[in-house]
């Protein structure tokens, strides 16, 4: 059992990593395209490789951390990866956002290699760090105790996501006003890259210092045997496939969001971006609360169905944004973004709790702990899909597609993911606990 203070310490670990991941997901493609003029296809490939790397890294280090005995590992079977991974993740994040300082006026090849190397290292260490950390949760908490921990993680991820997304929007506005990553814009970007990296490291220290790992005796495991057992779990496979397909659409929407906000919605000033970021934060807060309430009463699956159907109706409307007379363009953009983020918030809210419940159910049935395998392997199809999304973004931009068509393109992947998602059961403990509070990515 964890004390309240220890639950808080564990939950706040995700604050820094969520900031970093949101900034990388939203801003990397935009920055390399709009500030150092990297070719869109090379940009897409560089971002895609990073997603492939995190998939392999998450699975491998999830298995390795499962296989370690807590008594044999000096710094703990999960803690070891956190101690090493947290500072290296922060370093790779900072390096990813300072090419203009290191290679000013660099060639396309040099810029591409810089993006490829540091983006890959960032995603490698993200999998190295976060999969063992997330796999630690079932070992620290009992099902009824997980309610409180999940609530803290909810709040942590919400604010971390808001800071990451808000910073991306504001930074884009500042860079545009400065005419590039020069002068004050360059210093602000460097300062915040270092600040966010330091915050990411600091957030892990209280948990590492105060929480002791529960003794877990492990026997030698075969990675392929463990994977085979996981892949026999129908709910796990169905969720992985449906979420991977959805991730293609989410990746396209996220990578092009800054361009859409600036070019279609006409929000080009720092103030415009600040208002938009604030509204998106409010939409996410309301969305998390709404889907949490619905899931407690009706279940996770019903919540997902409602959110998917809302998005299927709403996302195809991007060609009509700005076409309604008498309503200012900015207002139309704010309304569209608010409802889109509200609907999409369910896709950010439920994935980790679904995987945690599946792993927990498996352990109760087999008396074997393989949460690292369940947590890690799902990253492979998800990140392959995200890699494909980045390649598709690069292709779309190279063809000079009108950004108003983002919504219909995203809708295609939503329409494919929904019927597959319906095949799974994501309320494995609902009969035992109707008051589960969910955690976010």
SSE order: HHHHHHHHHHHHHHHHHHH
CATH level-two architecture: Up-down Bundle
**Largest pleated sheet:** none
**What number of structural domains do the residues give?**
1
Model regions low in confidence, pLDDT < 50 over at least 5 residues: 432-441
The first-to-last residue Cα distance is 24 Å
Class inferred from helices and paired strands: mainly alpha
Based on CA atoms alone, the radius of gyration comes out at 21 Å
What is the arithmetic mean of pLDDT?
85
Percent range for β-strand residues? under 5%
How many distinct beta strands? 0
CATH class: Mainly Alpha
CATH topology: Growth Hormone, Chain: A
Summarize the amount of helix as a percent range. over 70%
The total of helices stands at: 19
The CATH superfamily turns out to be MFS general substrate transporter like domains
Overall geometry = globular
């Amino acid at each position: 059992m964890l004390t309240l203070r220890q639950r808080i310490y564990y939950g706040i670990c995700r604050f820094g990593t969520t900031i970093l991941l949101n900034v990388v997901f939203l801003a990397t493609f935009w920055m390399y395209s709009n500030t150092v003029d990297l070719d869109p296809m090379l940009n897409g490939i560089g971002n895609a490789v990073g997603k492939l790397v995190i998939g392999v890294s998450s699975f491998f280090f999830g298995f390795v951390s499962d296989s370690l005995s807590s008594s044999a590992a000096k710094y703990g079977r999960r803690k070891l990866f956190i101690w090493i991974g947290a500072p290296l993740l922060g370093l790779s994040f900072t390096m990813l956002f300072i090419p203009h300082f290191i290679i000013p006026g660099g060639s396309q090849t040099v810029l591409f290699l810089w993006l490829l190397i540091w983006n890959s290292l960032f995603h490698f260490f993200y999998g190295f760090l976060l999969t063992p950390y997330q796999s630690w949760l079932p070992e620290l908490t009992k099902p009824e105790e997980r309610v409180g921990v999940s609530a803290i993680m909810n709040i942590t991820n919400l604010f971390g996501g808001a800071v990451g997304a808000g910073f991306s929007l504001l930074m884009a506005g500042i860079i545009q006003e400065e005419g590039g990553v020069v002068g004050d814009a360059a210093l602000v970007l460097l300062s915040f890259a270092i600040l966010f990296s330091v915050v990411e490291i600091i957030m892990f220290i209280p948990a590492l210092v105060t929480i002791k790992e529960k003794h877990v005796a492990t026997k030698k495991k075969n990675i392929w045997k463990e994977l085979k057992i996981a892949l026999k779990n129908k709910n796990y496979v169905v969720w992985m496939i449906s979420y991977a397909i959805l991730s293609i659409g989410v990746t396209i929407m996220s990578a092009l969001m800054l361009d859409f906000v600036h070019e279609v919605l006409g929000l080009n000033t720092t103030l415009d971006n600040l208002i938009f970021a604030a509204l998106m934060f409010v939409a996410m807060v309301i969305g998390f609360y709404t889907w949490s309430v619905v899931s407690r009463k009706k279940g996770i699956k019903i919540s997902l169905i409602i959110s998917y159907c809302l998005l299927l109706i709403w996302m195809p409307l991007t060609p009509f944004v700005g076409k309604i007379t008498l309503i200012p363009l900015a207002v139309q953009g704010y309304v569209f973004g608010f409802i889109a983020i509200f609907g999409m918030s369910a896709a950010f809210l439920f994935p980790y709790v679904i995987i945690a419940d599946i792993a927990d159910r498996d352990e109760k049935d087999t008396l074997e702990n393989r949460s690292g395998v369940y947590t890690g392997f799902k990253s492979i199809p998800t990140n392959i899909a995200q890699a494909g999304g980045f390649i598709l973004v690069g292709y779309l931009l190279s063809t000079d597609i009108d950004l108003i068509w983002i919504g219909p393109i995203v809708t295609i992947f939503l329409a494919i993911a929904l019927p597959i998602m319906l095949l799974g059961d994501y309320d494995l403990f609902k009969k035992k606990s109707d008051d589960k509070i969910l955690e976010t990515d």
